[in-house]
Every structure is written in structure tokens, then in C-alpha cells.
Amino acid sequence: MIKVGIVGGTGYTGVELLRILSKHTHVEIVVVTSRTDAGVNVSTIYPNLRRTINLVFSPPDIEILCQCDVVFFATPNGTAMQMAPALLAKGVKVIDLSADFRLKNVAVWEQWYEPIHACPELVASAVYGLPEYHREAIANAQLVACPGCYPTAVQLGFLPLLELGLIDTHGLIADVKSGVSGAGRKAELATLMSEAGESFKAYSVHGHRHLPEIQQGLELMAQQPVELTFVPHLTPMIRGIHATLYGRLTQDISLTEVYRVYQQRYGQELFVDVLNIGAHADTRNVRGSNYCQIALHQPQGKNTLVVLSVIDNLVKGASGQAVQAMNIMCGFAEDEGLQALALYP
Amino acid sequence: MIKVGIVGGTGYTGVELLRILSKHTHVEIVVVTSRTDAGVNVSTIYPNLRRTINLVFSPPDIEILCQCDVVFFATPNGTAMQMAPALLAKGVKVIDLSADFRLKNVAVWEQWYEPIHACPELVASAVYGLPEYHREAIANAQLVACPGCYPTAVQLGFLPLLELGLIDTHGLIADVKSGVSGAGRKAELATLMSEAGESFKAYSVHGHRHLPEIQQGLELMAQQPVELTFVPHLTPMIRGIHATLYGRLTQDISLTEVYRVYQQRYGQELFVDVLNIGAHADTRNVRGSNYCQIALHQPQGKNTLVVLSVIDNLVKGASGQAVQAMNIMCGFAEDEGLQALALYP
Amino acid sequence: MIKVGIVGGTGYTGVELLRILSKHTHVEIVVVTSRTDAGVNVSTIYPNLRRTINLVFSPPDIEILCQCDVVFFATPNGTAMQMAPALLAKGVKVIDLSADFRLKNVAVWEQWYEPIHACPELVASAVYGLPEYHREAIANAQLVACPGCYPTAVQLGFLPLLELGLIDTHGLIADVKSGVSGAGRKAELATLMSEAGESFKAYSVHGHRHLPEIQQGLELMAQQPVELTFVPHLTPMIRGIHATLYGRLTQDISLTEVYRVYQQRYGQELFVDVLNIGAHADTRNVRGSNYCQIALHQPQGKNTLVVLSVIDNLVKGASGQAVQAMNIMCGFAEDEGLQALALYP
Amino acid sequence: MIKVGIVGGTGYTGVELLRILSKHTHVEIVVVTSRTDAGVNVSTIYPNLRRTINLVFSPPDIEILCQCDVVFFATPNGTAMQMAPALLAKGVKVIDLSADFRLKNVAVWEQWYEPIHACPELVASAVYGLPEYHREAIANAQLVACPGCYPTAVQLGFLPLLELGLIDTHGLIADVKSGVSGAGRKAELATLMSEAGESFKAYSVHGHRHLPEIQQGLELMAQQPVELTFVPHLTPMIRGIHATLYGRLTQDISLTEVYRVYQQRYGQELFVDVLNIGAHADTRNVRGSNYCQIALHQPQGKNTLVVLSVIDNLVKGASGQAVQAMNIMCGFAEDEGLQALALYP
Questions:
Q1: DSSP B167
Q2: Average pLDDT for residues C179-202, to the nearest whole number?
Q3: Strands A143-145, A172-178: parallel, antiparallel or unpaired by DSSP?
Q4: In chain A, which among 232-251 make CB contacts under 8 A with chain D?
Q5: In CATH, which superfamily holds the domain spanning B2-125?
């Protein structure tokens, strides 16, 4: 039984961590922080946790957090980098769901996020928490930077092709659609149901913060520059990401062979599931689960390959993947607490 | 480990049984039947079950079903009554999610359902599977008739008042709203997203089949005739039932006292949760879980009491409650397989 | 061609006024005010009005508004009462979509809204803008208080019964469901799509501001006290109100006779449409239109009558009804600008 | 006043034609056919048309249809080609919303649709009803083939670039998202709200029937072969298409210059509206209207251009565009009956 703390428990990734961890057999949640809701019962704000989570939100306190074995940051960008150094110094394992430690190039981070990174010296030691590609490093990490939701779906879809050099690194396109929970639990006009319901739009086409993160991951694998166009869209549903990925094959290879590449790469993976040739991926089939489902198509046999990759943005795209990382770091079964199947319909 | 069969596995209550039972520690699912999809992999139709359910739909076969310890019927009305006698004769426990054995008065059943009941002699021995009110009988039952979704929400809300005679049995009103999954997985115009989405309507106001079932339950408790107006509505969401119940208090009793009555009645119940005075019940807080959440109001201190009762129609209103009954019948922990928290947001 | 001003043009009732009035043959919109968005093009915030509305939001300025023939207030409660006196003094017709002038009893208004009403002396002269019941007074009014959305649906449903004394004035129940646009265009957690989507809940069951307004209208008609329980609900759709109304018949009267009462009352009305016996009302059939559709039921022939009344909360429940009032006040055809049919599907 | 007939009035494009044409000042709808609903009042099936459409569905009868000036086919593919010859022979103008006359190459049509085209000799004379590119031909046509919904959004977005040779004709990508009404009013599992709600998926990635139609239009403009990957997706909303189009610029041209190209091309068009640079297109802003809104982006200044093109699939993507064609054919104002603004929110 390890002691776990959650910093920033009032957002959607925070409540999702609570939902998952409350049923984890090796975890005791000892502290959940919230500045705005300090003193309030967790289950008052989240009645779905009644009868299970009997905690009160407390203001963030380093001393108390230092008594945890693992601390999750489910905070807006810019918070974890303030508090992580003290926790790491005390030997606490830190799993950050925000973007603070995702980019290896601090200058790029400062260009897309905040003017000054608070602890650039820690960035190098942070392990990017995509288990399917960094499992061993995660196992030995003290600080894990969990991938963003879009980067998870896009990388799991593209990486097997780049790993084997099967697609042209120029002209990659990631047309990605997200449910509104990706915008977080913030009072904003754009995600009101009257605005986002029954409508569909692209946003941040000029440049979204997840672009440099995706690019970093693809280039690390390709070992060369990658030219990617990434267009995120807001979809009138709550949970789910559907990435439609386009790349041009560099060699004459059949869809069946491509399928075998994915099967080989992910066949042993607990949470990445390659659908049969001809199938389509549907976000409802992973809703509430930690799975990524991938489908492969080669329309009209042309050399443009289409990869469909779906996840639940709050589970495999955030809190589920964070728990998966924790399981690896702590030597638990990798799917402990994560066996839930998708809620369909 | 008991052997379980599911008859009618291609509907929403069938797939929900599969989702729940696949994670049940004492259950092995040995057969899932479907006439229309016999020979097809279960996970082809339900990709959310991939990697977990490795079964093929088979045509219903009494011989094979007789080898089960428990057989669930997730079939349209009229099927269970054809097959149950043979299974019961072999000592199999039968849990029927359809309406075949819910009404004690066979004549009333034949008026609302089919002209002729196939085995009226079994009706008396069937136990109505509402654990909060018939736990002991369920424990000893061989045949359980699971309550309908509307009747579950309405009865859990009204019964504590009728048990103590606190409301007038005349003029009860149940204004109930259901998500579209309650209509089942059937190709019909009325539940197309283009028809049911972004719209709200009442239906079957002249008389819905769940009316006699609710009335039977209320009258059994009240020990006198009950005059109930029941109006079901179709709500543009997938899962969830919200019952708004109105009754007139027969005595001068405060809302606090009413709250205590519910606390006393349900305080020990694992799956019925009475919210604090002033709170409202929200279907999202029980989505995907086996909970019923109840809130109590007495607007403007008048003598009309308002009870809000929410469930997930496919879990506490169907498959979850059926598994709860199985747990009781088989001596398992009552919440085995049912600990999942609601998926929020 | 009359000159029209709109105060508070950035909310949903404001944009709806713009949509309707921009196609009105006798209206020129000369000013649209907004404190927060002053200086911004209207069509920048509302791209659906591009190519049609070529105006810039201006700060509210009494002098400019006084040059209008008609001024609409699509403002939060408490604004119109500040500005109306000056406009009325200049002979401008004022149509207020907020609640400032709806309640005749100022003390009740101050209890439910703000501590002090700014111009109680005007309340008596304000005409309640429900054309089906106050057409003549509206025609002669200088100040019209448009009914709230819930009150419109509930009163149109209940009033014919109270007019003839057909139902008991005790124990009336209005169980009403609204789409989320009723909450306005405000950045709030509760109406985020992640919160309000795929969920259903009652709210303000202890007492909603529309209760005294409804009660005032019912009592005016009944000429005696009315005991009403009003429970509003939030429905996961954008537009639409569905009122399910329950009353007990005071005499032995058939549903056919009740139907004739409604036909007689509304047969000549342009915007109230009584559906055939047996039909159900569906909010999608009035979406975007100024119609109220009403259906009548008498379940199982008992003496509880069920009236279903649906409107689009932003049209007949707000801006459409306001334009209908303007048409009457200005002697235009009552349906000028309001002929649009519901957008289905 | 012209006499208009509608063949196939019970689908979504049929009811949309009725909604639009019922308010058209130069049109009298004299006949609406339906095999399945013959004898039924139109407003019984479509209560949104009550008080406006007073017609009964009749079985299709060539003699009666021949008395019309214009006949619309809102039928499934394969019907118009059976009946059009007789109507054309009598001088009736025929506007076909199905795919029967869209493809100039009959062999390609027979490959994607039905084995044998019933009147291949008429195909050459059919005019493709995209007014922005074939206005003059439409004005002189007797038979118009209305574009499909996807082809409308994609072509309006891509054609200005191909017209001037600004993008590479290889590697064009059209990632397009449609609301569920595009699937029509058919009782099918896939478009049930429980299946299509709260979920997102691609479909027919291997090849959708609109591909050859789009390709034909793009190649006609480019005057050379075009290599296009077209991936349609099903979005959990009722109305709307959002096309995200990707092409590689063939020359060093700024986004501002591209914007000017679109402004020049569409500046005089009544129904195509180019948004300012930096803006995004949102389907809600064209919901219920005949507009196409287009936004242009060049992410990170790379040479991949991103065009966002949104329409309402049932209006500009079907019935609205068909009425636009009729207006042109009959010499009416092109926007007669089509002035409705988008219904927002």
C-alpha cells in the first residue's frame, strides 16, 4: 500500500485520478489539494465519488505532500515545476499530467508556454510517460511527464511507421478531433453546451501547444526532422479523441504488411489494440477505458496510408496513462486499477 | 466459480451483462446466445469487449444452457417464459431481465403484454428482484424477475413514504425521464439521433407497460389501492433515468424528518444513497454505476413532497441489478462486480 | 419602417432578436448596445449574422436610444428598470425581456429579485406581454413586460382550464424541462457541455424565480389562490421547453370536451397549436419557431389531466414573443418576421 | 407562381424542401409523393409543418407530376433515373437531389451505384447544380443534378485553388465530418442515438460514393488528374458538415494572397462567405442556412494550406442548393426562399 497525493483535484483529470485510484488495490489516497475548494468535501463537488472517497480538499502543502510515496500533478501548466523540486528532493515520485516537463528543449517550452521555466535543470531527467515506448525509463524514473491527450493518440498511431521508416517524414497530417472535456473544467463561453453542442469546428489551426510535443516524439523516433501539419477540432461529445493520420508510404508495401508491423509492435501491449483490416475505430469503444484502438486503411490502394487512432482523452490521454506509469514505477501489474472496459452504449 | 449463460446477448442489457460479468471474480461466462448473430464473435459486434470476452454468439440451445448454474435472459418480452421452465426443472437459477415474470396477476400481464402467458404456473414462485425490498426472498429464489428501469427508480423513491403511510395514496405522480438506451438496440426511426437528439418529448402518456408493475409494487407496500399517474419522457442522452415524484403528505412532518426516514431505510444499503437536504440528483453522477441517488424536497414548505430519484437505466435499472440479485442468490458479496463508480464527466 | 434599439445584444435573447428583426420588413435596427463588447462588430461575435447585420456594439446611451421608436431590453434583471423611465418619458415604446416589470406586487418582486425596485411606480402600467391573453392591452401599451420562458409554456398550457374552472386550483403541478440556452450566455461551470451534456437534473426545486410569475398569471385567471408546485429541470439540449402539467378535473368531463375547450380558446391564435387527441408534443417540432404546441391526455381515464406544452425558449419563450408584442403595439401583422417554421431535424 | 412537385417527401431532404418551399413567394407545392406514407397527412409525419403544409402524401404518379413546372427528386439513388425521362419529355424541369445524374462517366456511376443506369443518354445533358461554378448552365438546364453534401463542401473549398493552379494536384486530402442527418431518415442501428451519440468515427475509408463525384469536379477544374484521399466521419450532431482540406502550395504565395483569391472568387456570391484571416469556421454558424463559410490557414507558414469549409448538409448540401438551382432555372432572385439566417445557438 503506497501513499498517494493529488495536487489539483478539482479538474477533470483530478476527478478521473480519484475515480481510478480509489479502486486501486495498492494505493491509499492521503491528500487531495485544491486552492479554491479547500475545506470542501471531495464528494460534495463530485457526487459520483460518494461512499468511496472520504476526503476534504486541502490547500497544497509541501510538507504534507512530502509524506506521500507518489504525488500526481493534475494542475494547469506552470504549477508542477514550482513544487516538483522539493518533492523530488525528498525522494517522492512525481507524476505530472501537465506540460511542464514534456518538452526536452526548454527554449521551445518557453516559446509555447511561459516565459521562464522554473526548473530547467530537471527537464533532462524527466521521463516521457508513454509506456509503449519508454517503459524501461519509466520504471526507473522519479519524475514522469505524462503525454498530452492529442500527442498520445497521434504518436501511438504514427510511431510504428516512423520506427521502420515506412512513411515520408514530409507532409505528415494529423487531423484530430477531441471531446469537450479536453478543455478542462473551466467556466468559459466556448465550451458551454449552447456553444459547443450540435456544432463542430477546428481551432488553433495556426499552432496548438501539443504540436511541438508531437513533433518531438515523432522526430525522436524518425531520427530526423519531421514536417507535420496538426489540426485539432472540437467535437460535440464529452470524452474521446479520434486521430485521423495521413502519411505517404516510402516503399511498395501492402496494407497487410503494414497491419503486421502494428501487430508486431503492439501485440504484447496491454492497452493498444490493433483492429482487423477493414475495421474503423470508434471513440465509444474506448470511452472510460485505458485502451487505444487503432485501425489501418489504404484508400484505393494509393500510397497514402490512413491511420485511425482513438482514445479516451481523460483515461489513456491523461489519468489512466498516469496510473499506468505509476504501476510501472512501483512494480505493480501494469493494468492494476485500469481493467475497466469501455462504457457502451 | 459458477457457470453463467446469457440468452439474448446482442441488446444493450446483454452487452452490459457481459461488461459487468467479465470482471466478476466468481463467474465464468460459458455461453452467450443470439439468433441473428449466431456464429459471430461477440467482440466483433461489441469492440469495447475486445481482449476480454472471447466468445462466439451461439443459437439458443436448452441443453447447453442447462449446464449453467445461472442463466440470464436479456431478451425481448415473451422469450424467457418459453425457456425458463426447462431450465428451472434442471435446477438452473434463472434471472429474467424482461417483463415475463414481473406481474403477479397473469390477467393484467396478458392485458399489457401478450394474449397468453406461456407458464402462468411459475409466476407465483418468481421473486421480484428489487434487493432493497425483497433481499431474503431473492436469496432463496430460483427464478428472479428483475424490475424494469422506470419501476426501479420510482419504487426506490416512493416506497419509504408508503411503507410508513406518510403520503396520500391518491394523486401520486411520477414524471420520469429516460435516456434513449432504454428503448433498446433496435433499428427504429424514433430513436435515431436525428429524431431523438436535441429534443424532448413525453410518450405513452395514455399508458406505459411499466405502469402496472409500478402500481403492483406501490400497492404491495401500501396495502391498499394506489392511484398513480405515470408519464415517461424521452431525453436526449444515452443513459440515465430521472424520476421526479410528487406526493401529498398525510401528516404534518418536516423535511428533516422525511430525510431521516430515508436515511433509516437506506442507510445500510450499498446501492441507494440519500443526498443531503437541499441537494439535487443528477443522472451523470450514477452513469455507469449501480447506484440510485435520491434527493428530497418540500417546495415552499407546502404539503407536496418532491422526491428526485436517479439511476443508470442499464445498470441499477437492468443488468447491474440483475447481477446484484445473482450475488444474493449465490451468496457472493452483494457488490461483487458492481463497485465501478460513475463515469464523470 | 420603425427604428429599433436593442439593449444588451450579446446574450442569447439579444442575438435571437437580431436574427428575427433583421428579416422584419418594417424594422430598421439602429443601435445594439453592449458594455463588454462595445466597439466590436456584431458579426464578429455572431458569425451567423454576417452579410446581414452590419452594426457595431455601442455602449448604452440613453440619448441615442431615445431616437428609437421601440427599444428592447435583452439584459439581465435589474437593468431595464434603470433605463426605462427616461425612454418612456420620451415616448419610446419599451419591450423588456427581463423580469423587471413582470410582477405586479413589487414586494414579491423585491423578495425574489433585488432588494429595491428602481421604479415601482411604472409597474402598474406595464402590460404582461402574453398576446393570447393580453392582446388588447399590449396594443395600447407603452411598456411591455415579456413573460419568462417557463411562465409562457406553463400558462399557455394551464390557462384554458382555469379560465373555465375545469381543474382544482389546489395541487397543480408543473414539471418543466428546459434546454441549456435558458441559462443564458454566461461562462459558468454548470452549463459546460461536460457538465450538462448527457445528464439530466432538476434544479431550484425549493423555489425558482419564475414561480411567483406563473402563480400571478394563474391566479389572475382563476380569480382565487392557486397552489402550484413548479419543478424546473435542465435537459441536455440547447433549445426547447417541455412543460408537463398535472391538474385534477373538478367535474366529469371527457378528454374530447377538454380538447374542444382548447380548440375554441386557441383555434384563432396564430402561434398556439393544439395537437390532435392522442398526439404527443415534441420540442423539435417548434425549434426555432414561435409556435407553442399543446397536447392533452387523460391517462387511464382518471381525473388527473395531463397537458403537454412545448415552445422554443428563445423564440416563443423570449425574443419571438417580444417581436410578436412589438407587432401588436405597432399595428403590424402579428406574425411579421415570425413565419419561420421549426428546423427539423 | 409555378407548380412544384416533390417525389420522395418523407426523407430529410424532402421535409427540408417542404420547409423552404412553403415560404417561397413564387412556388405552389401541388404534389408530394411517398409510397410508404401515401394517404397520410404531411403534417402528421412532420408536425413542424402544421398550419403551413396542407397536403396528403400521394403515390408517385407520372401523369400528375407532369402537370408541374418543376419536379424535385428527394429520393434514394436509382429512382429519379426511372421517372425523369417521362417528365423531361413533357417539358417539366427536373431537379434531382440524388446521385443519378451527377457522374458524367456512366461506367464509373455503375461501378459505385447500380449495375445498370436506366437512362445513360440523359447524363450528358444533366447540369451539375453547383451554382458558384455552373450558374449559366443551370439557367439553361432542364435537368439538374444537385451535388452531394460532401462534394459541395469539398469543392467550394478546393476549387479556387485548382482554378489558379495554386496547389499540387497530388496528395490532396479531404478530412470531412458530417452530422448524422446525412445518413437520412432510415431505421438503422448505426445512426441510433445510443450508437452515434457521444462518439466519433470515420467510415467508408476504403471508398465512399462521393469520392468519384468530388474527383470529377476537381479534375474538371484542374484539367488534369487529381489524386485525392477522402475520409468521411460521423459526428455526434444532427446537421452540419465541416471539411478540413489539405493541399500543398505549388508556389511561394502568402496566406493574404490566397485570401484575396477566395475573396475575388466568392466576393459576389450570395451564399459563399470567406471569413477573415485567423478565423475558424464553425458549423453552428450555418445551421439551417444556405451559407457556406470558408476559413483559410497556413500553419506555421509551411507550404501546406488548410481550408476549412462548413455547410448545413441539408440546406447548402441538399435542399437549399436545389432551391437555389430552381431560382436560377426559373429566373427568380437567387436567394428567394433562402434568406434564413443560421439558428444560433
A1: B
A2: 97
A3: unpaired
A4: 233, 235-240, 242, 244, 246, 248
A5: NAD(P)-binding Rossmann-like Domain (3.40.50.720)
